[in-house]
Structure formats: structure tokens, C-alpha cells
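Complex 355.
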Amino acid sequence: MNDRDAPSSHHRWDHLASDVLNGHALNAAEAQSILNCPDVELPALLAATYRVRHHFWGNEVQLYSLRNAKSGLCPEDCGYCSQSKVSDAEIPKYRWNDEATLLENARIAAENKSRTYCIVASGRGPTDREVEHVAGVVRKIKATYPLNVCCCLGLLTAGQAQTLAAAGVDRVNHNLNTSERYYPEICSTHTYADRVDTLRVVREAGMELCSGGIVGMGERQSDLVELALSLRELKVESIPVNFLHPIDGTPLEKRDDLNPRYCLKALCLFRLTNPESEIRIAGGRELQLRWLQPQGLYAANSLFVSDYLTTKGQTPEDDYRMIEDLGFVITGPGPETAKAKAALQSAGQEAINAS
Ligand code: SF4
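Predicted structure with iron/sulfur cluster bound:
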């Protein structure tokens, strides 16, 4: 294609966005075409994707804060992770944070304008006692701060998921990370099916699902497409899109597959295949999107503020400035999950019926 043809591409992406807004679920070939978008068409793709983002999320940006409640010492072998047993990365290693530490970090999350506080722990999965510890802290957080709470604790049993739900946990994060086909290439100690099972028990316990992936681990484009379509099938409410941050000492330390334009196309892929879901630009944002970070928010509607699990992010002030410069606004404090919205709506309906 000649560069002079670029303006006509506008219509192609615009039609695709219109189809999505009319309820069409993209098939694998359509989804793959987004990743194959020529760079010269990227502005048109972003403009079209922004129509979909704006339709469902306006110009709002939801902020999330992470707390690594238990770091390192993990017996699993996920190739991208600095906390795994096969990683030599120099990271802080500690057992569970106590209640005071988790509450203090909830306070900081609220102060940082976060809507959601994510409690994350390394490991294959928690013990029942560890789940009780988290549940106790979550009850106190919910009684004190206007925060949604998301827990990322590894593989969960049905009973553990029910304990978390009863404590008021809004969501559980458990990333599928990549396609079922590519999963054995990045982890041998648990399977893709194990991860899907955890998503299932979380859903059955009545919590929302947060599940996403990591772009740039050596997967094919078709793996990324498969992941996006699997998340759609699972009706995942929240999709964190990570870009591999190759950390020294991990098996993937030498991978260098990404450029910022491809990262934007990946964000468009997740938005257009999962139009109503929250799409969050997650780990690796600063490293891989670099100067194109703001454009990412034309597809995504959410960011992590401050640091990631074992890597540094840019300052919250830089994020606020970026959002303001785009003319976007930070979503106010929670809790207002889909569940809360539904409860409010049904309360409103009851009031109407009673009047
Ligand atoms: S299970 Fe979690 S903490 Fe452990 S290696 Fe995998 S991603 Fe890292």
C-alpha cells in the first residue's frame, strides 16, 4: 500500500467501529486485522477505537493502585515473573503484610485518587488462613475508604472465593496471560485450565472478573487474538493489558519484540473485541509505550497509578497531568461496580414502584 492511500483507510476502521457499536462481535480474522494495521493507518484506527471507548466510558479514566502483599518466594515458574522460583531478579522478598500495612496502603490508594485497591500476593494460591487474613482486612477497608477492592491471590478454591465475596471483595484478578496454545511455553507448574477454573469459581461466588494478558512474550499475533476472544467469552469485566517488561534474571529477560505502535494496536484489539469491558494499560506502560502513552487512553479507560509489583511506574502527578492534557477526567471514588450499579438501579426501581 502507498502512503498516499492512508486517508481512505479511515473508512475501513470507522466501519469496523460502527459494526462494533451496532453489536457485532468481531471474528478472529477481523481481530487479527487490527494487529496487522499498517502504521500509516494507526491514527485512523485509534480514532475509530476512541468512538467505541467514548460510547461506553466517555472521557473517564479509572485509576487503580496495587499493593504487593507478599513478594517473591513463589514455587511456580512463570517465565515473565521476577517472583518465580526460576528468577534470579533482585527484588524484595517478604511474607504477608500485616493488617496495618495493608490498611495504610489502602489509605494511600484513596489519596492517589484510585477507584480500586488491588491486593496482590505471589504464590500458586493462598491457604485458607491467608484468605481469612485478607478477608478481615477487606472488611476494614470497605468500612473506611470509598474504594473497590480487587484481590489477586493465585489459584482459588470455591470455598476461598466465597470467603472473599462475603468479605466484600468486588473483583478477583487472575490473568489468563496468553492463549491456551502458548501457555505451556511460559509456565509448566500450572495450566491454562487451572487459571480458567479459578475464574469460574470467582464468577460462581458472585464477584466480577479481572483477567488480562501480557503482550510481547514471544507469542504469535493469533495467540493474542485468541486471548482477547477467550476473555470476551468469559464476559470479563476488567482487562489489564500488560506489556512485557523483560526483567534481568527472568527467563524472558532478553525478549525485545515490542514497539509503541504495536502496543497501541494491541490496546485497540482488546477494546474492539471487548467493547464494554474496562481496558487497563498495566505493567510495562512507561517502558513499552513511551511517548505514545497518552494515545493509549484513546483505546483504554484505565491505568495503574504509581508502582507495579516489582517495577517502578511514573509518578501519580505525571499521570494526572497526562489525563488532564488529554481533556479526560479521573473517575470519582468507588464503590460503583456493575454489581453496585445494579443494586442502585433496583433500589431506584423499587422506590418508583412504591410511589
Ligand atoms: S504464580 Fe504469580 S507470583 Fe508465582 S511465578 Fe507465576 S505470576 Fe509470579
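The radius of gyration is 20 Å.
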